[in-house]
């Protein structure tokens, strides 16, 4: 925090103390408490930078306030905090207040009673994020306003509303039949696993899939046996894409290719056989994994049953 920032912060603390002294003497007139709300941010792609506003409702107002917003540091990195139109004349901010919190404070000699944005927080979603649903936790510290007949300030009560933040990766690959067409494969959660579910016509060459990830992101592409695929390799059902920061595994995406249940890159009677075992309960999704189970659900109705077996069997007989 700069010297100026410390000064402003001291003023806020001082007004808070004054408020403590005077609030019992000068009773605050009943007023509608302001509500501070972190805007919701939905489905951002990893690697993207996004703005999140902290907004305030129009109300009786405040003269000074300090705020922190806590975030998941494994998912987001703070970029900046900028002053919004509803902030006061003085505004200080620290985007790296603590390891997982940004801080900002604002103060004005006039009552701030306009609705609008107090601050805009800019975050970057870390490259290795696969799927995230979490919240940005707003805490309002000291909040004062309404000069009480010239003697200091009174405390202002308020409501603080957290924001939700979600990030989701999808993987874009060309279609084999029409390379101009891009198949967008969103990552979805199935049980405890994250998978991409692909039509059999997707070009899942490692070289194509790798284009989805930032150059500086450490990735591994593993075959169904857990061995590293080369750049010339191809992902099939049961392959896994691993994302690292340094040596730490941060995310894993399993691959499902509709119809190739055993992941041998063929669509034949053996896949139909496995789907049959899944449909009659002799095998379970726990036995084969979420990706293989998804690959067997060729009619994409969410369950593996007789209908999938019949579709696969006809495919197997007529490749
Ligand atoms: Ca197969
Ligand atoms: Ca099905």
Cα gyration radius (Å): 27 Å
Shape: elongated
**Strand segment tally:** 18
Q: Under CATH, the topology of the largest domain is which? A: Immunoglobulin-like
Q: How many structurally independent domains?
A: 2
Poorly predicted runs of 5 or more residues: 16-30
- What is the straight-line distance between the termini? 68 Å
CATH architecture of the largest domain: Sandwich
The helical percent reads 10-25%
Strand portion: 35-45%
Please tell me the overall pLDDT: 89
| Largest sheet composition | 7 strands, mixed
Bound molecules: calcium ion
Alpha plus pi helix count:
6
- Please provide the ordered H/E string of secondary-structure elements: HEEEEEEEEEEEEEEEHEEEHHHH
CATH C-level name of the largest domain: Mainly Beta
* Helix vs. strand class: alpha+beta
Account of the 3D structure:
The protein has two domains: 3-168, Immunoglobulin-like (Sandwich); 170-317, no CATH class. Helix content is 18%, strand content 41%. The chain contains six helices and 18 strands. The protein has helices at residues 3-22, 206-209, 269-279, 285-288, 290-296, 306-317, and strands spanning 35-38, 41-44, 49-56, 62-70, 76-83, 90-98, 101-112, 116-125, 131-145, 154-155, 159-161, 163-168, 170-174, 182-190, 193-198, 218-222, 240-245, 248-257. The strands form three sheets. Strands 2, 4, 6, 7, 9, 10 and 12 form a seven-stranded mixed sheet that branches. A six-stranded mixed sheet has the order 13-14-15-18-17-16. It is elongated and about 85 Å long. The N and C termini lie far apart (68 Å). Mean pLDDT is 89; it is low at 16-30. It binds calcium ion (2 copies).
